[in-house]
Fold this sequence. Notes:
Blueprint: H1 2-12, H2 19-35, H3 41-57, H4 68-84, H5 91-110, H6 114-128, H7 135-163
Helix pairs in contact: 1-2, 2-3, 3-4, 5-6, 6-7
Amino acid sequence: MMFACLCAALAQESPAALPTISVKALKEAIKRHLQTPNTDFTKCSKAFHSLIQLVLNKGSNSDPSSKEEAWGYYKEAMDIIDNKSQGCYPEMEILWLMTKAWNCGIHLLSAGHYVDAEHWCGMSMKLLKHLSSLRTHYDTQMTAVYGEVLAKIEAQKVRSNKEE
Length: 164
């Protein structure tokens, strides 16, 4: 397990910066973390953090297709948080995932990609539910803005129906 983490760390360092190798090594590290009897969710979450950051950096903020790979890793992380970590996934990493997903959604919303924006903001709202002590700092504002996102999507649907 340490070897995969070491390979991923080295492949991300400049001047080498080999993203393809880094992604493979991080995926392997996550797989190995999850195969251990007593999963260290702190180490696993850091590997997900690095993996998601790496793949999000490859694309454009406003291009939904450049976020598809990251979306898959988000779903994996969400499955672990929901079903496997039993409350042991670090709250600061959940906050980081939530904030990154929210920012992706807001960038997509600004670019007019309403449905993709809803997916990302929706993921962020799901992650919000897993926060404990930090939840009160984000709940009200995120809920209000998420309502605006949903309203924009609905307005777009109405406009599309009128055009047909």
